Amino acid sequence: MKRFQLSLAAREALWAYTFLLIPLAFFLFIRIWPAFQALWLSLYDWNADPSKRVFVGLEHYAQMAQDPLLARSLRNTLLYTLIGVPAQLVLGLGIALLLNAVTRERLRDVFRAIYFAPYVTPAVAVAWVFSWMLSANFGVVNELLRLLGLPAQDFLRNPSLALPTVTAVVVWQNLGFQVVLFLAGLQNIPRDYYEAARIDGADDWRLFRHITLPLLNPVMVFSAVIGTIGFLQLFTQVVNLSFTDQGGPLHSTLTVALYIYQQAFGRFDLGYAAAITVLLFGIILLITLVQLRLLSRRVEY
Amino acid sequence: MLRSFIHARALWVSLLAFGLMSAQAQVTITYWQYDFKSKIEAIDELIKRFEAANPGIKVVHQTFPYDAYQQKVGSSIPAGQGPDVVNLFYGWLPTWVKAGYLVPLPESLINPKQIDSEFVSMAQSAKIDGKYYGLPTAVRSLALFYNKDLFQQAGIGKPPKTWAEFIEAGKKLTVKQGDRYTQIGYGISPDGQDHHLVREVLLRQMGGRPYSDDGRKVLFGGPEGLKAFTMYTDWVKKHGIGIPNFFPGNNGYRDGFIAGKIGMIIDGSFAIGTIRSGAKFNWGVAELPLEKAGGRKANFGSFWLHGITPLAKGPKLEASVKFLNFITSAEAQRYWLEKVGELPARKELIKDPKLSLDPVYGPFILSLSYAKATPFVDEAAQRTVIVNAINRVLLQNMDPAQSWKMAAEEEQKILDGFYK
Q1: Is B279 exposed, middle or buried (0-12, 13-18, 19+ CB in 10 A)?
Q2: In the structure, what pLDDT confidence band is assigned to residue B17 with cuts at 50, 70 and 90?
Q3: DSSP-derived 3-state class of residue B303
Q4: HSE of B403, CA atoms in CB hemisphere, 13 A
Q5: Burial A253-282 (b: 16+ CB within 10 A, else e)
Q6: Is the pLDDT of residue A192 over 50?
Q7: Does A157 contact B396 at a Cβ distance shorter than 8 Å?
Q8: Which of B395, B414, B420 to mutate to test the interface with A (most CBs of A within 10 A)?
Q9: What is the CA radius of gyration of chain B?
Q10: What is the mean pLDDT of residues B353-360?
Q11: What is the least distance, in Å, from the CA of B175 to any CA of chain A?
Q12: Do β-strands B135-140 and B302-308 pair in parallel, antiparallel, or remain unpaired?
């Protein structure tokens, strides 16, 4: 009797698929299935008892159109993204360039570790420390302003300062991640290109403009997309920087994610919360597609 | 997430096996509350006593961090897991009932008339459409905490009896260096207890009332309300006896008081324990000041109640009611006061003269007789309305009259939305 025999390649593929099944199952049941459930939920008035959930169709979507707080949270979220993502990219790239110029490897690692530390610090602890540093009365930041002869600012309680302040804290925290990404990108650029260009007589700016920037494009795209998604889902820092008046003062720091949370678990209106989730999903999908389209164009070297 | 899932699964399987083995002899019910050390220890002890008296019932006690608590309840009960008896803030009741997270207490087992007569009147806020949805073990009211050492240093003899005296004391206790405060007279905190102070205390002292009897009309927008509101914002704008967020953080006003940097705060009886263990100076408690000597008294009362969820069915429902009756019994309430420091919810215990003469509990107990609980339909949103009204004046210099008018309109919208 001849034994049924698979080729080595086929067996390897089979193993690969077997192992891939586990993350696949995870994505299908933990990520994708609940997303569809949210869509379904957004058409119902919530009740803990499934038999008492009333089908309301698109009523929650109509409700969104007349919700000033939702509009406010959308506007805020957009502002966070518009300020935060570019700031994060520019600062991250800048620091990475400086670090890249450090030739002593040991020293570079030390700096990199220092810049990365905030990224792995729990957001709650960061928020806690910053609320003290930014305090109008006791904060070290205001102490610095004072030394410069500037008036003290109530960064977190002034409605027109609170959003930029929260953004700055988030950017500070994300910076390490950006730096590491850009540094890896920079170190992947072959030295030869720079040397060849130098021989051709290119100055530093042209090296940066025509070699570094184009070759960093994939990192930029990744960084911008991940950063944007991160800011669109901003939640933890906002909640913890103004814990008893979340999203305050005067809704000036309210984000869509926080608003969803408040609707869902502050007042158990999970149907409406699900509808806003669907909206946020749509916005993130749209923006990400546009970004990928615009940013990851083919580059001529 | 995964671990808690496996946990829940394992628990469920073992419960099922246990249930099959012991057939009908044993009922297991689950009790949930948020994480608070003295409350956890108190409930553990009460469960021990309850199980000893009811051998057929086993109570599983689970707690969650305060900020994750509603989220846990919100997602667990629809999944068929979670508490049979659950602890909740009275202000959450309408939203919980509307979303189907609680069932009315069965009148055949708990007599509503008896509750009306045996519990302090604010317990009736646990009633919706004439049905009780839960009972409190303990209640709280507000009073003035003051730093006796700072009072002495500033040459103030006694805690203020009127708001005029309060402002005077506040001014003497406020210390400024340049444009910075190093010490303040009053730990003003719109999102602490002060939103209650304005709506429930000052307004009623001025002769107004916040809502119509059926709770559907906002009445605080009238002249008494504006007077109360302006008086409050003047503490900052005109008299400068405090600034919001003097100390940052969740309970900055309380932390600042404990640190000895704030002369007076208005806080609930639930703060007694924290202040007692934290404050390294002499402090006292006084009933809230009045508009004028002999003026109208008012206070804000609140409580956490124990409700029963739709998960409690059949024998579990019966066991849950028994447990609920036990943890709200006079015996449990007396123990709760000793252990947790919260005031009993039963009238008979409050009448105890030993309690009302106590220098710390006394002012809170005395206030209970005239304390009212705000009938919230959406506690978070209604709190935000008042906090925002205050912030518009303090942070954006809006005219108090305009800000207060906006608040009344915003809150009316919330009520209309709920009752539509």
Answers
A1: middle
A2: low
A3: strand
A4: 21
A5: bbbbbbbbbbbbbbbbbbbbbbbbbbbbee
A6: yes
A7: no
A8: B395
A9: 23
A10: 88
A11: 12
A12: antiparallel
pLDDT above 70 for B16: no
Give the number of C-alpha atoms closer than 13 A to the C-alpha of residue A165, restricted to the C-beta side: 25
Split at pLDDT 50, 70, 90, the class of A218 is confident
Interface A-B: count of C-beta contacts within 8 A? 97
Helices (H), B193-342: 195-196, 203-205, 223-237, 252-258, 272-278, 315-327, 330-339
Please list, in sequence order, all residues whose beta carbon lies within 8 angstroms of the beta carbon of residue A68, skipping any fewer than 6 positions away: none
With a CB cutoff of 8 Å and minimum separation 6, the contacts of A114 are: none
DSSP state at residue B66:
H
* Entry pTM: 0.88
Residue A229: closest CA among A181, A291, A139: A291
User: Which structure tokens are listed for A119?
Assistant: 């990224």
Test the B interface: residue of A245, A258, A259, A262 with most B CBs within 10 Å: A245
Q: For residue A57, is it left (φ>0), alpha (ψ between -120 and 50) or beta?
A: left
Nearest to A266 among B78, B245, B380 (CB): B380
The candidate with the shortest Cα–Cα distance to B77, out of B307, B322, B314, is B307
Q: How many CB atoms lie within 10 A of CB B205?
A: 23
Residue type, A92: G
Name the residue among B101, B249, B251 with its Cβ closest to that of A268: B101
Exposure b/e, A220-239, CB count within 10 A at least 16 = b: bbebbbbbbebbbebbbbbb
Contact check, Cβ <8 Å, A268/B384: no
Residue keyed to tokens 């490897």? A105
When pLDDT is averaged across residues B241-245 and rounded to a whole number, the result is 91
Chain B residues in contact with A264 (beta carbon < 8 A): 71, 74
ipTM over 0.90: no
Instruction: Compute the nearest-CA separation of B264 from chain A (Å).
Output: 18
Instruction: Please give the backbone phi and psi of residue B335, each rounded to the nearest 5 degrees, phi first.
Output: -60, -40
Q: Which of B70, B245, B309 sits opposite A157 (nearest CB)?
A: B245
| pLDDT tier for residue A272 given thresholds of 50, 70 and 90 | very high
> Structure tokens of B325?
């009756």
Does the distance separating the beta carbons of A136 and B78 come in below 8 Å? Answer: no
Main-chain dihedrals φ then ψ at residue B37, nearest 5 degrees: -50, -55
Query: What six digits make up the tokens of A203?
Result: 């100055």
Q: If we measure between CA atoms, which residue out of A164, A196, A8 comes closest to residue A82?
A: A164
Question: Could you identify the residue written with the tokens 């698109």?
Answer: A58
The residues pairing with B32 across neighbouring beta strands, listed in sequence order, are B62, B86
Among B95, B189, B190, the residue with its CB nearest the CB of A268 is: B95
Helix (H, G, I), strand (E, B) or coil at B86: strand
Q: What gap in Å lies between CA B195 and CA B197, rounded to an integer?
A: 5
Q: Show residues of chain B in contact with A134, CB under 8 Å.
A: 248
Residue located via tokens 């620091």? A95
Rounded to a whole number, what is the largest CA-CA distance in chain B?
75
Q: Best mutation site among B76, B180, B236 for testing chain A: the one with the most A CBs within 10 Å? A: B180
**Six token digits for residue A70:** 């939702």
Compute φ and ψ for B211, nearest 5 degrees.
-135, 160
